[in-house]
Amino acid sequence: MKIVVQRVKNAKLEVEGKLISQIGTGLVCFVGFGEGDQNLKLDWYVNKLCGLRIFEDENQKMNLNLTQVDGEILLVSNFTLYADCSHGFRPSFINALNPHDANNLFEKFVDMVKTQLPNKVKTGVFGADMQITQHNDGPITIILDSEKENK
Description:
The protein has 151 residues and is α/β, with parallel strands linked by helices. The chain is built from 2 helices and 8 strands, in the order βββαβββαββ.
């Protein structure tokens, strides 16, 4: 599992010109699953994501989490996080989890995040061609990677 977390002032997600999701201050998270992630301990990632202290306090120190700033979160499925660009110029996605299993894991992940952040979670459309506009804040970008983190 890989999650690219970006702190934003606002973001919106559209599919075929239709507004699907929109958030104010918060996090945009691109979430991808790779082969072998079926037995991942998703709760660790949910707790880490919801607890990340990457918002500034009154002293301009990154010390506050999403709940403390009354922020929102936009979760976007993104298999391209598993692109292998080591050979040639066309990425291979052989290490990405198959769409059926990835969708099941993504939906489970979304549901778990919703239990920690009720009414603050928005999503994209799995497998769709999504257009995302975001106003990055910082920029602050954090990467959570199951190959480097606890499983």
